[in-house]
Amino acid sequence: MLETILLALVIAKIKGYKIKSLFKSWTIYPILVFELIYLFVQANIFKENYSFIKYANVLETLYFCSYLALIIKYEQYISAIIGSACIFIGTILNKIAISANNGKMPVFPTLSYSTGYAKPDAFMKVNDIHILGNSSTKLKFLTDVIDVGYSILSIGDIFIRLFVFIIIFNTIKHMNKVEYSNI
């Protein structure tokens, strides 16, 4: 979800907010540690080492928990509620897609074949909830169809990532507001 954090930083910068304050606070560093772990897992997928995928659910839970310090320290409670609603909606959308497809999430790689992230035989090797999508896939628009080359996302995944964007952007906005009110 590093690209979501980067997007929040870029939009905050475009809106005229200073982003340097975010990195002066210890609360961003647990999040960045989990981002590094995520990059490590992604690098292993590129190398066709799928042994870390079984830990993805636990890592995702810990990753979202790493935002608690940021939420509490900068009182981002409303943002957290809105972001949690986005996670809820995204999870429901993903569960609908999975239920419609016999308990599996169909994936439609395009760009990821070119980058080497996805390989046709990988879905057999990994043997998790993801399967290669085909013409019999139901509710294709809810499955993993948004291919960014190093990850393939669903609409539900986009909603889940909105949590990250909302928390990071609103924390920067809050920090700027506090900084300017102290001048």
From TrEMBL:
- Provide this UniProt record's keywords sorted from A to Z: Membrane, Transmembrane, Transmembrane helix
- Decide whether keyword Membrane is in the record: yes
* Listed InterPro entries: DUF5317
What residue ranges are annotated as transmembrane?
Answer: 26-45, 52-72, 78-98, 148-172
Report whether Membrane shows up as a keyword of the record: yes
Q: By what name is this protein known?
A: DUF5317 domain-containing protein
